[in-house]
What we know:
- This protein has helices spanning 3-20, 24-39, 58-70, 74-82, 86-91, 98-108, 113-121, 133-145, 155-169, 182-185, 203-210, 249-257, 260-272, 295-301, 317-320, 350-359, 382-396, 422-425, 443-455, 480-490, 507-516, 535-544, 558-567; strands at residues 153-154, 175-181, 190-191, 194-200, 216-222, 226-232, 236-244, 276-278, 281-283, 289-290, 335-336, 364-367, 403-411, 430-434, 461-462, 493-497, 520-523.
- By secondary structure, it is of the alpha/beta class.
Amino acid sequence: MDKKQVVEALEMIATYLELKGENTFKVAAYRRAAQVLERDERSLKELDDPGKLKGIGKGTSQVIQELRETGKSSLLESLQAEIPAGLMDILALPGIGSKKVATLYKKLGITDVESLREACEQGKIRTLPGFGVKTEEKLKEALEEHGSRPERLPISFMLEVAEKVEQSLRHVEGIIKMSRAGSLRRMEETLKDLDYVLAVTNPDIVREQLIKMDIVHDVIADGQTKVTVELESGYKIQVDFRLVSEEQFATTLHHFTGSKEHNVQMRQLAKAQGEKISEYGVENESGEVITFPSEEAFFHHFGLKFIPPEARMGMKETEVFQTSYPLVSIQDIRGDFHMHTTWSDGAVSIEEMVESARKKGYEWIAITDHSKFLQVANGLNEERLMRQIEEIRRINDLYDDIHVFAGIEMDILPDATLDFSDEILAQLDVVIASIHSSFSQSQDQIHARLETALQNPYVHLIAHPTGRIIGRREGYDVDVDYLLKRAKETNTAVELNANPNRLDLSATWLQKASELGVNIAVNTDAHRPETLDHMEIGVSIARKALLKKEQLLNTFTYEDFKKFLQKKRRKEDSYE
């Protein structure tokens, strides 16, 4: 377990204790321990004895040690067994905390969403102390939305479901080749369902195994060439499996990768050659169906270079890929300059993040913990930031194969000022600026905030520029055309935040940025080592935007990236 996971476990224990009705002092002890542990700048590995930290008592220290040594907590497990699991579903509803859920449980015996719904319909909620008619009405509204599936789900959610599907498919015998297809393979931001193409030796044997996979909730269709199942993963998710021969695999995969607009363009190219494309191959004028050993060979048949799946959007790809057009690839990435450590709200130490970046073969990274305004993320004040700069300098002396830049993710404040003075910013190597608050402000107010950052000689990058969370939050009111124009004029880079919950900027805006010549960075915003892997998702979105290697700052050598950092600064403050 990393420190962030231990903190989450302590907070969960506090929640369960509150649901159980334990005394407030005991509940507060676990919440306080979580806060103390989170605010300590050391990682779990670096902490010799958590019990020595002020605010962590003997009991909570023992729980932390158990979590650290075993990855489990006997106390948490016993509470989970004792408290009805359905109470956590109620707790997930907006506008209700653990104290009120505890009251519902004790006073009315409510244990799940359905019993809560029934109590609301019978008017029982309003009779409880601390509730009332308004609370009951708000709960009714929340219950109406609960469990209703949006037509399309965020890619972050569907990627997790896809991982479960693929783990199950690895145990299915008789599959020669398999691939994602549809909107997931194109890396669309939202998805309706999941599609897979399977090359199989015996369809009947494979079909029988598919419908019996543990993850399958229901079987929708069980045909010779198509099996459709439904999964239950918080929402009902439909998964289509296309079963084909190995010879048909490439053309079937192309057909079901889409998009519809891309397939129309390809059919037009085929028609010009007197041919027809189907999911099983290409039919020529004599009626012969031609199959291909790979998608590369399929595209070559029409005089095209390979079109990556992400780029198959029916835009201009059949023109662009008539000649070699090398898009950026994950192998081109040399660095990542948006990530967090235990100094703010990350899970591991600076050194542990550096080690993880070294394993990826990176030449450079930047540590960019949160600034002081974001107190919920344990943001750094001036004194702590200066200490972190010294720590980064110390760590740099330990390595000769990677350089660590000292940075900050600085808040652009609601009053259109920045969280740190220029005097402080001048001592940093990398400054990225972000909006994390007051999203309801007018466009003029948002633009004034962005303008402050754009004009500042020390700000190198605007991070997650629209503030959106896919499927959950629209973001703030920003004219992205304006932002990109000003970014170009001020030589400020814009970010594609590779966290699959964000993907901000979108591929459409990245294309616009590239046309304007704006500097673009793909950053992971990693809070733990494994989320550095989100770089692959970010690169896929960059490929969707038809970006080449030289258009991303992350592909720059250490020396070239250092020159970029110097370029915006005043001459007297040039980077050393």
